[in-house]
UniProtKB/TrEMBL annotation:
Pfam families: MlaD (PF02470). It is found in: Cell inner membrane. The chain crosses the membrane at residues 16-35. The keyword Transmembrane helix applies. GO terms for cellular component: plasma membrane. It comes from Marisediminitalea aggregata. This is Paraquat-inducible protein B. Keywords: Cell inner membrane, Cell membrane, Membrane, Transmembrane, Transmembrane helix. InterPro entries: Mce/MlaD, PqiA-PqiB_transport. Its main location: membrane. Residues 39-128, 292-387 form the Mce/MlaD domain. It comes from the Bacteria.
Amino acid sequence: MTQDANIKPTTPISKVWVIPILALLVGGWMVYYQWKNQGPLITINMQSASGIEVNKTPIKVRDLDIGQVKRIELNPDLNGVTVTARIDNNAAHLLNENTQFWVVAPRISFSEVSGLNTLLSGSFIAMTAESGNQEVLQFTALERPPVTPPGTPGLHVKLTSQNDELTYKPGDTLIYKGFKVGEFEEVNFNVDEGVIEYRAFIHDPYHKLINANTRFWNVSGVKLQLASTGLTIQTGSLETLLANGVTFGNPQGVSKGAAIDNDAEFVIYNDYDAAADERFKYAAQYILLIEESVRGLTVGAPVEYRGLQIGKVEAINYASIEIGSLLDDDYPIPVLINLYPGKVRLEDSETGLKFLRERLARWIGKDLRATLRMGNVLTGGLYVDLQHVDDPEIAAIQTVNGFDIIPTVSNEFTQLTQKADAILDKINALPLEDLITQIGDVVQTLEAAAESVNQTSDNFDATLASFDTETLNAQIQQSLQAFEGLLKHYSQGGLSKAEIADTMNALQDTLRAIQPLLRQLNTTPNGLIFSDNADVDIQPKARETNP
């Protein structure tokens, strides 16, 4: 008996394919998920790729990894490199017009020490976390890290410098009364205007000190100035000794101004005096025509009246004044001065300026004159002194190129020089040749007298030599021996001391006895010849009669 076979069709797909299909689906889902959730690719233009490695160098925000470098390419024009990086999706919202990138690497300078933690971990690309309105995927990295971390409370200001010889750099300090309160962040040279522009940041709460009347001035290093007032040394803090620095404040006499907005513009003055003078908006300008040397007079030298500064020298040999050439015999050097109404206690306004001009015009017509005086003997610095002089020459108000001229008089040094020249002229007028001839004759006479004295001395020496010194000594010795014998005789057999005393007493008695005789001779020299009958009393008698 035959048995029929039961034939069943096989499954078209084997169960073995289930696992690869499931793996493929899972892998596809993972790829889709990764693609769906990965962040965007960005490009960063840099000067160089120093310290950056593909698939190693991270991109960080506040020390948190939010991306990684994927590719580095050299720019076609060879002016830098282009770095392509992948940013995590959860940080994609930070990519806007305010986002900035920079490379963090070890940096050591006078103004900062940063990035030392990258000595072991390697360099990385830092990124700011600031909000914005527009998504941006192409960036240009900063050449150095920003001085102020993003989000720091404070105030940004824009500064321009008066001093073209001094340039501040990012990281230089802003100080206030010795405290570091801010830093320079950016520096840019404006080619069109030819000025250097800065952007600085002042930390909170010091930014509240800035107002519309605030002035900034330089305190870099040590400033040694020899001027008419003497030796001046100015310095800031230890930081400004090693690097540049700027301070600020309201100069004395300037009230606090209105509050300012962010990125307000200010000027950096050379020193405090320049910043203080800037508060005066009105100034009367005059010209001095100096006919003597201006050596020692500097721009900025004070202009004083009765010992108080009321202005300063603005320019020396002012080029806008055309009065001839310096090689002319009578060329006066034009000096431009500024006189401030605010410094003479007038209003800093058009009214104060008008009053100042009217008063000076009246004084110039009378006796106001300008002179150069030496402010310091050691430095030789000069200043301009306005003074009222006695018996001046009448001077009318003169102008040159629209500037009024203040007449000048010679200073003390010039007057002393003129007196010295007059004395020298008198000395030159003396008959020096005749005087020299007479002096020569006197010298010859003195020489003859000296020769005569020498001859007399020789004759005296010869006379002394002619003496018989031995005979003279023998005679002296004989005299001494005779005197010695006399003394010996007195001591041995001569009159004794008592006998001499008796003799002297008898002599005194005799003198006493003859004293009356001596008196008589003194009164009546002829008393020894004629008797004076002083003791006879003559009585009158009657004439006898004859019996």
